[in-house]
Design goal:
With 251 residues, the chain is an alpha/beta fold. The protein folds into two domains: 30-59, no CATH class; 65-243, Nucleotidyltransferase, domain 5 (2-Layer Sandwich), CATH 3.30.420. Helix content is 38%, strand content 15%. The chain contains nine helices and eight strands. It has helices at 2-8, 32-41, 44-51, 65-71, 118-129, 142-152, 163-178, 187-195, 216-230; strands at 85-89, 97-102, 108-114, 134-137, 156-159, 197-201, 204-208, 242-243. Helix 7 packs across helix 9 (216-230). The chain is elongated. The relative contact order is 0.15.
Amino acid sequence: MQLFAKGQSNDPEDAEWASFRRGTIHNPFIDPQEIEAARRELPPDIFDQEYRGIPADDGGNPFGIKAIADCFNPAMVMRDRQPYVFGVDLASKHDYTWIIGMNRQGQVVVSERFQFDWPTTKKRILEVCGRTPTLVDETGVGDPVVADLIAERGNFEGFRFSATSKQMLMVGLRNDIQLGQIQFDDQRLKDELDMFCYEFKEGRVIFSAPEGLHDDGVCALALCRQLVRQGPARGALRAGDIITRPRRLRS
């Protein structure tokens, strides 16, 4: 970005510099149908950066640093402390289980992160989430955990992450953040959102934390927002790689 700016500058000190922008959309060897498919599927600023050669102000952060800052409020006054939905990202070997609960106003009223063994993890999830609608990551090691939670209570649903389903989830979270529909006061969550990034690889956007960092809170928040968008009263979700199971009837 700095070198490109030198080439665009009118400063006499930069007179020997020149820079040009020629995006992928002008490449005659790229199938126009691929470009149009990307235009439909990608957020506008990501398309501009990857196909039109216009760098985004926030680099590789898909949410927008300013938008994240606008949603972060350390002095947040909770209008309603009762969670409306929960999102849970389960720990793998080196990560954290993170539980996020949100009220009807879009405020994060529960944000709990821990590393326990699986029996203790399941017990804590049941204690925190109670019978509130909850969407849980069931990718990999999470599958039997979610199965046990569903067998215990009927308010749990599973979500399986893949490249496609995670992109859908993060694009939805991005829209909610940029529209200011979320408010939170957890600095750890802000740090994860700030560090979150995307990589454009083989025509696909891959959302993740940088190597060596975590995105557990981001995923839990995204699961929470997904359940808000779908409507917790609608029962099992039915899009992409989301796994659905019948709810157990209560007598």
